[in-house]
Amino acid sequence: METESEPYVRLATLRQLHHVVADLNTARSLADTLQTVADGVVGGLGYELSAVNLVRPDGDLVVAAVAGSAGAEALMAGRIGSRAAWERWLTIGERWGELRFIPHTEGWALADDDIPQFHCDGPEPRFADEWHPMDRLLAPMYSASEELLGVIAVDRPGNGRRPGPWGREALQMYAFQAAIAISNARLRANMQRALVRLEREQQALRASEESFRQAFEYAPSGMAIAEMGGDQHGRLLRTNDALCRLLGRPASAMRRYSFSDLVHPEDIGTLLRTSAEGGRAELRLARRDGTYVWVSLRNSVVADAADGPRFLLTHVEDIEDRKRHELQLAHRASHDSLTGLPNNAELRARLGARLCNRPPALGASSATLDVAGEPYESALSRYGGAAYGPTDVETDENGFRSDGFDAPFGGPPQSMVPYDHHVHTVAPPEGEADDGTKGLAVLFCDLDGFKSINDRFGHHTGDAVLIAVARRLTSGVRDGDTVARLGGDEFVVLADGLGRADAQDLAVRLRNAIIPPIRVDGRAVRVGASFGISWASCGMSAEEVLQSADQRMYVEKRSRAKTNRRAG
Questions:
Q1: For site-directed labelling of 38, which of 75, 123, 278, 403 has its Cα 20 to 30 A away?
Q2: pLDDT digits (tens, 9 = 90+) for 210-238
Q3: What are the C-alpha distances in Å from 485 to residues 298, 299, 417, 464, 488?
Q4: Which CATH class is domain 2-189?
């Protein structure tokens, strides 16, 4: 009779298993899935009590769902059992396939473990396969990667007997399907959390983009976004209103340019040397009306985590007022406050820039040069009279001569070798030796009769005379020449590219330009001028050149008759 009913029992069990598995697939959350697993054991597999113990992130197991007994649920739900105790339970039990059965005869060894349990008192078994109240049946649930997800603990089969082979297989199959349902529920929960997190991040990104847009558009100083890389590198993609107002150009027109198109030609090198990452530069940008404005550029890179740097964000600050003030301060430091001419320090700086500390080589007015106190021709003949000196001398292991020559294959000492990178300033030869060489003439001018004007008419008139003389001197020289005021009534003119006769003619013209009367407060006063001419030459210092011109000026002043010098 039992044999004939076995197929019917199996079919009925499969139908029940199908229904409970279907219920697992309709659960909407992880909590619903866990409760459905517990309910399926009671409603589908015929056990009176079930508890689902779920592995937590820390490895311990928590009672996540209980079915079949309100008392058991109140006592066990939410309680935690250690992973070590569960591992011991799963090890000590009899293996029924994937199931673990712990008979009441062995359960005493687990009495002190911290795993939550619920038992009802009952009579001792009357036959071999009868279920004892202290029997334990466990169904472990594993993921696809063989990781323990949890354990289903069941108690009190409906028929009061320990499950047979088919009942065991049904519980094992159910635990397998429950593991899949729990994994899927966790995956859905993770996806939902990820979607919520993504939505929050997108909302934060949109809020950040809006904040950036408002900060960009309404910033009080200029802002620009330029393209990085590719054929359009540096092209302006976006500019704010402040930058458009600063340059007087509409935003639509700005997109046709890059900063290299707008920068002053003299500042293009500064722009190119500016680093894209945190670079800063002060330069001039062109306005629509053709004028230029001083700005400070500060760059930062807007990076894309996937593709690398994509855009360049440039902050443009108007520094026109500060720059104008700086230039005014620099001008005041280098120019005379009364006449506006370069002052003593600026004159010496300009003159010193043309001079080096060694004389020119042979052929550049070499008759007046020396090497360590010895005339150049004499020094050269001492080294063999040839450009590379004698060759029958000893050399060291590096090929250098032992007689003072610096070159491995002969040649004059380094002190006699001219600078290749420097164009020497030389003085034109005097007298009949004049070969048409042009040099840098230094004309030292001292006014004649100026002290008497100061004494008779006061410093106000004297200042007016100095201003007028400065204007006349400036008008009498070329654009590239320098007219400076040393102080008092002394002026210096630097005129490059002149021969000796040219310098004399220039001194005469400037003297004649100064002599005409100067009207101050309705009064006409006159001053004369004495000029001393010197020539700048490498090997001399700026102080030596000026002293030479000063001395020649006094010689010229004393050589002229007093009546020819006086004026006023």
A1: 123
A2: 888 888 888 888 999 888 877 778 889 99
A3: 41, 44, 37, 14, 8
A4: alpha beta
